[in-house]
Amino acid sequence: MTLLIIFFLVSILFSFLCSIWEAVLLSVTPSYVEIELQKDTKVGHKLKEFKEEIDKPLSAILTLNTIAHTVGAIGVGAQAGKVFGKANLMMGSIELPFNWEAVVAVLMTLAILILSEIIPKTLGANYWKSLTPFTIKSIAFISLLLTPFIWVSQLITKALKNEEGKSVLSRTDFATMTDIGEKQGVFREGESKIIRNLLSFDKIKTQDITTPRTVMAAAQATTTLKEYYNENKSIRFSRIPIYKDSIDNVEGYFLKDEFLAALLENKGDEPIASLKRDIVMVKDSLPVPDLFNKLMEEREQIALVMDQYGGVEGVVSMEDVIETLLGLEIVDEMDNQNDMQALARENWKKRAKALGLEVKNNS
Asked: N vs C: which end of the chain shows fewer Cβ within 10 Å?
């Protein structure tokens, strides 16, 4: 009886540990690994190693678990046969054969299911952070002991791999996690919208957020400062393109602040071209993330958008990029004084929704 109990307890104990290790290892998040790496801990470096070659620790765990189950089942079954032997069960006057080994096998199966699968895996999944250091040290130890078995297992798993190096997380996964985070209160509504918009950023092209040439404010290069001011006393835009002869021949842009300063300095008879700055030119097919990087590299806030034939399609600003990311149009005190801006905001909202962006409603 003593050996039967020993075989049973040892088998369940090792299987219990294997289930906890597996649950903890698979529950560790990439962010936790990165945090531990930044702390420069041994656990962090070992976790990174295990995560990069996940088949190695899993092979060690599964090998030990299989040995525990097999040896335990054989040992318990053999001892049960010796202890209980074969007996007959009397039901009234009828004598029926009764096999204690079968009963022990059923009880062993139930014990393995409950004590070495359900309970430890639940504990491992719920308390993985506190169990991680113990798990990492334990797996490192058994990996060393079971090196030959792991080597054979790795040969098999490498032969079956067909997507090596591919991330297990997709943009859809991150979007789903964002939804869950919002429901659980981890993210505010506005924060979750920004994350979802950011995940769709790479699908949006510059042409999708361009202000078209038909409504683009621009100035003729030969127009004097005074003439332009008389025609445009309420200048809403801080940067205005300058063209020569035709809108398809944009040469640069000028800053509203420099324009007003020049007027105050009595330079009203000078041409707009005297304030000209070089303007960045981009293709309408340029992805918005690349547009953002381009504007950052050039330290510019505006760019001229060209179509596939080299014609001017319109202009785009850093403000347009930020609005696309936030899902909220940036307005200033001048916008509320212009009825046309209200219509522009509505058009922007329609355009954003058509792109699949989430838009915050302003009251």
From this structure: C
